[in-house]
């Protein structure tokens, strides 16, 4: 069982690094909604206290109405901070559990991130957004929403793009939040995989954060992504905890990460 204090610390850093446009609270449930971007982390209910288990049925219904107003499907993000009673209630409703994610961390001093080329972060948010959309293979219509999210990040952030013959092949966002360096949005273009590009961009981003004073690195990776999970393990990251998303079986549609 992970230490809840550490879980809370990393959850808070994650919220700061990937800010939702609207944040409301129902008790300790953080309700995050963003009209301009469909990311589940930006559009989900995040319970933050295992002991907050009152009026679950009524609160789920209230959350559903809020999400409906944003034309979003209600999604719960269930970390170790979520009360077990909520999971049990969603089980009774037959809600699907999907996209389990591992949160991994390590002291900078224990990571194998030296060697390889240094890459400076790009200063042009538009250039990074275009590169990220291309590398992820996402719909270009997400450009405005992603630009808004990146422009709203308050801690210092580095936008990293690795190119090959003028074309972006790997991208990553690194957010330096006090002693923490978080890696987000890592992706390598399908045609450039298995060439060490992902490792290069992660190492360059973490060296940048270490130079700025970060002493601990962390990230999130879907457990189904065995290649990425193996990359992070090879660098020295260790799993701290896992979370997963839950949604009703009705009206399922495409949901971005």
UniProtKB/TrEMBL annotation:
Keywords: Acyltransferase, Transferase. InterPro entries: Acyl_CoA_acyltransferase, Bact_Acetyltransf, GNAT_dom. Pfam families: Acetyltransf_1. Residues 120-257 form the N-acetyltransferase domain. SUPFAM superfamilies: Acyl-CoA N-acyltransferases (Nat) (SSF55729). The keyword Transferase applies. It comes from the Bacteria. It comes from Pseudohoeflea suaedae. PROSITE patterns: GNAT. GO terms for molecular function: acyltransferase activity, transferring groups other than amino-acyl groups. CDD domains: NAT_SF (cd04301). This is GNAT family N-acetyltransferase.
